[in-house]
Amino acid sequence: MNSIEQINEQGDALRAQDLRMGEALVARSKLKQEDVDRILELQKNKNILFGEAAKQLGLLKDSDLKKILSEQYDYSYFHDGSQLSHALVAAHKPFSDEVEHLRSLRGQLLLRWFDQGNKTLAIISTDTEDSADVLSANLAIVFSQLNKKTLLIDANLRQPSQQKLFNIETRVGLANILANRQGNYQLSRFEALPNLSVLTAGTEVPNPQELLSKSAFVELLHDLEVIYDIIIIQSAPSALGFDYLTVAAKAKGVVIVARKDYTKANDLILLNQQLSMTGTKVIGSVYQVL
Predict the structure, then answer these.
(1) What domain range includes position 67?
(2) What domain count does the chain have?
């Protein structure tokens, strides 16, 4: 095939895509058919993209275009207002620079850990102010947007937060499963993020370290690894106790989270030393500037 034929084929493919976009917008009552015709005419005359022509004519907003494109390319996120925390930028603002950094982190983790046959990764920090909970949640979202069946587990049984970030009402979670070894347990799902599930921390308990040390936790992870491609476990920070060592040992791989102006260097050094004694592989660290 020569270069002219290739260019013609690419042009035909783009025109077909524009027509599908126009049809989708008409079906959602965002445009009328005569509007689509006007857009296509301007696009042809100025040799610009469909979206650019629509915006020049004042017929569409940027948010409308992003929504249609996300549907065409099977890229899930929350298009409209939801009860999820705005800290979950991957769900609300997937085209922002911040989320682009998260996708870069996702790529590194795939290369260094998940593509090596591993499925479970722990997220660990030194203090509650390090925002490891927000990073864990956003990271789980971007993995799910890659069409990976993703599970986020809140293993911070001391100060859980994922139920607040995702606005989950159920009180049954990880602690209940480990305490009772229930055969059935409830995972929270979201229509706008079909590949994401969340297992909350569950009922407040007086003995989190003992629960996490149970063989039931390992058995649970083995069961879940059959179902999910990616399992992100957020641990309690090291400042709250030694739960993180148990979580790290069971996950076998960890990412350490630090935050500018909050995380102390000595705490990070101690955390690394303690993790090395468990035989856990430290995949990398994330330095957050919030």
Answers:
(1) 3-72
(2) 2
